[in-house]
Amino acid sequence: MSDIVFTRMSGWIPSVIREDGGLKLSLGAGADANHEPRTFTFSIGEAHLAVIQEDLARHLLLWSAVLPLCDAAGTRGQLDENAAAALLDPILLAAPADVDALFQHIRWDRSRLIAHGADIGLLERGQVYAAMRAATETSNGKRAQEYHANRRRAERGTVLGPLDAAILRYTGQYLHGSTVPKRKPDAVDHALLPEVMRVIATAEQACAGMRISRDPRRGKRATDKRDWERMQTTVEAAVRHAHPDLVDDAVRTVSFLMCSEAADRSRNTPMEEETAGHRADSGGNASKTALSFTDDKGIEKKWLRDSPHSAAAEFWEFVADRSAADNEVFTIEDEEMGEGIQLHFYADSIARITTLREGEGGSDPQYGVEYGLVDGISEYRNLVSAFVHGGYAALEQHGPWISDVTEFERARRRRNAR
Hints:
This protein is of the alpha+beta class. Helices cover 45% and strands 16% of the residues.
């Protein structure tokens, strides 16, 4: 049975409890194997309690020094109570200079002190006691996050200017560069916002008219990596030219914003509209009346001319639904005309197939097969549109087509070696 003797406003700052007649410091830290928070305790004396009650700075310093011992206990281990107790007198009762000297030789949790208002400059110079003069019971976790974000940048040799920082705050990437960027004008100082918007306008003008298409080969919400890289390169070149003083972090976050927004627009665009820009020349033949789509797992889907969606749109929806690491071969077949195409996503290639002779008397049909190399999802879209509008013959202009398998494999290896 334990009774709380002293606690502060923040529930995370260690409390003092009385247990079995003795005083103990109690703190929550880490988590067990079930991700439940762990609680650690160790004995303290009356003199220690008096300082903890009266001196917030020393209380917080003790907390920051004990936390690494809790981390060392892991999910199941016990707190090294002797090591924890050995910190009490040097932190709570020693002279300020001795406290500073101790913190030069022990592990301590810097972020806790910064979150509670420590002077970062003094901390960096090793003056931990003086740094805690402005300490507060309330915690500001964002302050600690910003400190660590700036340290990570400094380790890479990046120092942000006011405009750089404002741009990162505008995109929401000041703390975490991997965060999906968004437009957050309220996060920017009003005096800097017009400059930020000029940089954003430069980026928007640079990529006006560009788009990032969907890539059904990688799922329903995947987008074309090449389109992304093309837009990224364009935006970054324009921003660097117009605003040469910006650091790379600021330039990259602007291009990330432009590309992310373009990708989101694409993901929300119906496949019908996505395929509309890939109406290849039909070669003069009428569009197909009925087609069969199949994947490498034997799943089949039929398309008829009276379908509410185009054949190309329905095929790419079929691919987006079915494509996977072990399912990368898709076929479109016109049974009536005896022709089809087979897409090999794993090899960036395609085969066009036509029936040369129907099977008779139990014999197998004879097919003509020609292979072609494909350069990205955009070319796949053009080939599919050409076939569904004009059939086998409409693909002639998209060659070269190679009928010899060995020769085709050599061509593929040469392409891959480049």
